[in-house]
Amino acid sequence: xSPTASPFPHAKALFFDLMGxxxxxxxxxxxxxxxxxxxxxxxxxxxSAFALEWRSGFFEEIHARFLAADENEDIDITHQxxxxxxxxxxxxxxxxxxxxxxxxxxxxxxEQVAWPDVLNGLQRLRKNYEVIVLANxxxxxxxxxxxxxxxEMDMLFSSQLLGMTKPDTRIYLKAxxxxxxxxxxxxxxxxxAHAYDLRAAKKAGMGTVYIHRETEDPEEDFDDVRNEVDLxxxxxxxxxxxxxxxxxxxxxxxxx
Length: 256
What we know:
By secondary structure, the protein is α/β, with parallel strands linked by helices. It has 11 helices and 8 strands. It is 45% helix and 13% strand.
């Protein structure tokens, strides 16, 4: 296949969300939870649900801050506050999991593994496009995640660095401007596993690619999402009946 057969023949810059899209944060968190002192209030069979609740609480916080037009907050502070609330709800005090344990859990968000399709897929895409992280959080977080996951990116744009938070449409336009890509000419694609992210990117004029991951968007209707975005790619492990999924499937669709 040649690039002329691509649904995005003019694309030059691919902007990627990070956690959930490129990296499996869930395995990172649950793996650490298994090593901690066991608690009656949080048995191992509840670790997955706890991690998902922590992630959901984080999204609720950043969306509330966005709607209130509050300033950016260090993602570690947000994760810490949500964690403390979840532990308090389960009556898990500092005598059970002390500050060192809690800090270790927060820092674990900086250590993630890439989804199985990502490293090879990114390598293929980088031969023909600039691949750029555009995600909420701090630049330190992005550096740590990329190092731990082995991600080779051309640029990292954090909400901290740009001074704006997704889904503010200005952040997509600013990122495109900084790499010299023209949104209106079809040169920019936003790739994410979060529908809210792509809805905002579409308003900004970017092409949109949804990567369906098993840990993300549990409250979305995926039939609706499929109809909203320009391209819907199944990135769930072992569920699409094909050996090609996620970023590998995206590379093939783009003609590379």
